[in-house]
Input
Amino acid sequence: MIVLSGGTGTPKLLDGLRHVIPEEDITVVVNTAEDLWVSGNLITPDIDTVLYLFSERIDRSKWWGVREDTFITHEAMKLAGHDEGMMIGDIDRATHIMRSELLRNGMSLTEAIRSMTSSFGIRSCVLPMSDDPVSTMITTPSERVHFQDFWVKNHGEPEVLEVLQDGIESASISPGVLEALEIEDEVLIGPSNPITSIGPIISLPGMRDLLKRKKVVAVSPIIGKEPISGPAGKLMSARGFDVSSVGVAECYGEILDAMVLDIRDEAAGDAIKDMGIDAFFKDTLMRSADISKGLAENIVDIFSNI
Output
């Protein structure tokens, strides 16, 4: 199974899925449009969350970063007047340094991540969506900033006028992803932000045409009119989509065969079905490992029946 992933929501689902199907049968295609270089090293936040999950190091209180990480280097740099704009843990920074050295030594991002999954003892295949740089940029009333500045530095507070992915038109689907799509027939879109996490993946040139040939099931990250977490609502509004599961379905469009909505969001079901998309209702909040596993089991059943 191929899983399209961003941060937070989808890793929770992956945590359940890896207890339902063998880890080696899971291929995760991860958003890279939130990547950026900080202090000489490439940070790939969504990829790292998946790496830390599968290597049993993720901080489950936040669902990002490394459990019990320290911040000695960050604090030392800050005291010296170098503010990185985000808190980077020491173990987390080691990951950034290793990846950046592999890139500087001539590896593609795909090759670097494959090397790291092997080093971390990860059996699943973790792939960047593209080896080419793509950056999500947010236009606010006062400035145009990288998504990380909007979300981390400015806490997602500014009004959002526009969301664009710089470089998306010239970016290519990574060779590893193309290879996986040749083999796998089932594609699960995780409950990550549809605009800045999943949006860049499906906006790569040629990706939608490839996905139309697959069985595609999406899990909505919205319940009623509220996102489960993060700035999805504000970003969907800026793109002209209703903040609802219906808006998510419209965002993904014709690639969808089925959609999983939360049991508290049954009101959206008829509109989803009117779009020609099968609707299923499950507990998607994933407040425990058992709920994540149960949701994953239900999704596997859905794939076998569409």
Observations:
- The mean pLDDT is 95.
